[in-house]
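During the no-cost extension, the postdoctoral fellow (Dr. R.K.) reprocessed legacy sequence entries with the updated structure-token encoder. One reprocessed record is reproduced below for audit purposes.
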Amino acid sequence: MPLDNSEFKELSQRYYGDILAIRRHLHQFPELSFQENETSKFVCQQLAEWGIPYQAGIGGTGIVAMIRGGRSGGAVTALRADLDALPIQEANDKPYRSRNDGVMHACGHDVHTSSLLGAARILHRLRDQLRGDVKLIFQPGEEKNPGGASILIKEGVLENPRPATIFGQHVYPSLETGKVGFRAGQYMASADELYLTVTGKGGHGAMPQDCVDPITVSAQIITAVQQLVSRNSDPILPVVLTFGYIASNGGATNVIPDSVRLKGTFRTMDEKWRREAHVRIRKLVEGIAEAMGAKADLHIDVGYPCLQNDEVLTARTEEYARRYLGPENVVELPIRMTSEDFAYYSHEIPACFYRLGTGNIAKGITSPVHSNTFDIDEPALETGMGLMAWIAASELEKEG
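Re-encoded structure tokens follow.
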């Protein structure tokens, strides 16, 4: 007998008020990456109140809960949400604005966590209908290298039992509430951080012959590295290198400083080219500095890999979404050069990471993520929790 999505929708409506309150509480008390102690305790309290078994303290503040299905089949699928917030001072004037100075849920992780809690409550209520088990992963540290996902995977979050598939959702303010978006295959870029110090010899700006100017050396490096990327990567391969920070240890109109510090990011969609580019960038940077009499100290902080949505699983999940929301509310997404540590899961098991519409132009809710005015159209929570629960149940039905 096929699953009936009307029960999932009815429970989403019934639990909406409770999940709304949970989201607002989480938004008021955000915590930075790997510091989500009170957030973790709060999530555990909710799970315990609903009678859902869980294990806390994974990767520090991570939590894994299990919904045991009542029908035979033995399949396991996983749903993931992230717990951490960003170091941003919130500018919104809402009753639920952040009370933690300088910290804000500006990327929607409060929405992800509350939606997964709502999905957990729905699945627990309908557990006798489930043809298998659902593993619920509440993950710390998505916003900071090395990424909580990599830590949880090392600690065995994808084992005992091992899920056959995993799903994650992320807020998308440019998509109206009630809609969701998917992209099969390559979806999000890898992300590496570049930290470069160019050391020369300072002195009077009118006597450069007595100096080694780290500013002009840095200028050469910036231009050359951009050319390296554009002339050596495949033109059809998405790739970007950006230096977003440059500062000297002094200097003035007539003073050449001793050193310059630069910070940047390198992103691509191809892991082979990514590794090759690291070698080429380092060789080029150090070579230019040496040729100009300076020294370059480059640290590449290797970050998240590219995110690959399993094509078969994503096509299947899009169909689940069409059945739940209607085909007019399911859209195709473009490639993004942003990154997400959910990518680590996608390199381990078939994964699908999709977008939840949270915008509302009529209400003026349009601010992008990572901005100090970010907020959501809160009815998106009803869509978020219901769809997550429906996707998990539908996938178990298929796998079983």
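The mean pLDDT is 96. The domain at 5-187+307-399 is CATH 3.40.630.10 (Aminopeptidase). The remaining legacy entries will be reprocessed before the final report is submitted.
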